[in-house]
Design a protein that fits this description.
Layout: E1 8-12, H1 17-28, E2 32-37, H2 40-48, E3 55-58, H3 64-78, E4 83-86, H4 101-116, H5 119-125, E5 129-131, H6 134-137
Parallel strand pairs: 1-2, 1-4, 2-3, 4-5
Length: 152
């Protein structure tokens, strides 16, 4: 058994990149893993790389209704969460003059509002919160920097 056996972990943006790598590591350490993201194809492909009992949920972290639905699904399937790895993010790579207000608003909705405004909602469902946002990482008291220091 791994160091995180019998722990239920949610990774937002767990369908690719750092989020998927984190989900796979939590899975290797024995956690039951739920991932969320927007791309149904990559969600299902990512789920296939995780162990039995893993969960992939289509959810937009900037949408309160999606978050409520996601947490209801996780509660039904897992019963509870032991931790949340906040990783979902959104980027637009364009020359500054091509950035539209709509695209800028989406970046703000996911990366700032999706993180800060939804922080309370995430905390209600889990006693532990891990962040992958470097800009706030050092400011959240008690945050684990790596799995060796993670106390779940």
């Amino acid at each position: 058994m791994g160091r995180l056996a019998n722990k239920n972990i949610l990774i937002t943006g767990g369908n690719s990149g750092i989020g998927l790598a984190a989900a796979q590591e939590f899975d290797r350490e024995g956690s039951r893993v739920a991932i969320c993201g927007l791309n149904e194809g990559s969600l299902q492909a990512a789920k296939e790389t995780l162990g039995p009992g893993s969960l992939a949920v289509h959810a937009d972290v900037s949408n309160l209704t999606d978050l409520d639905t996601m947490f209801a699904t996780i509660k039904r399937e897992f019963g509870h969460l032991d931790g949340v790895f906040v990783n979902a993010g959104y980027s637009v790579f364009l020359p500054f003059e091509e950035m539209t207000e709509q695209k800028f608003d989406r970046v703000i909705a996911v990366n700032f509002k999706g993180f800060t405004s939804r922080f309370k909602k995430l905390c209600r469902y889990s006693g532990r919160l891990l962040c992958n946002h470097q800009c706030v990482r050092r400011r959240v008291e008690g945050m684990a920097d790596n799995l060796d220091r993670l106390d779940l």
